[in-house]
Amino acid sequence: MNEGWNGAMDDGTNRLGWMLDDALRMPETRYAILLSADGLLIAHSERIGRDDAERQAAGMSGLQSLARSTAEFCGDAGTTWRQTVSEFDGGYVFLVAAGPGAYLAVSATQHVDMETVSFRLQELVQRLGKELSSPPRPSAGSPA
Length: 144
Fold this sequence. Notes:
The chain is an alpha+beta fold and 144 residues long.
């Protein structure tokens, strides 16, 4: 497993899903997933089922890897990748770095305000970074 995230879905609780749902309050957004660099699903929004989210996480992992490998096309092989936006007939997919070894992907319709989505995703990444770097809280009432 990747360092930098604590296996948020290992127990099937999708404990960070509410944060992704919050991001989808923007008009014209569809789905959100949080994934590890190796394509494992960390969390998903309520609008997408776990099986579909896992399949998309694997694909997004490949997309971010491809984007990182083309950094020198920007003039320097050491350039830091920050975001990829893919356009399709029906809309866009935004893929952003969300902390050490984690990525956030959001899909939206073709009518979305792209600037607003990019800004809100950066805000969400800041919030997620805190969650991904802190250990999960122990359950109340569990034996010590």
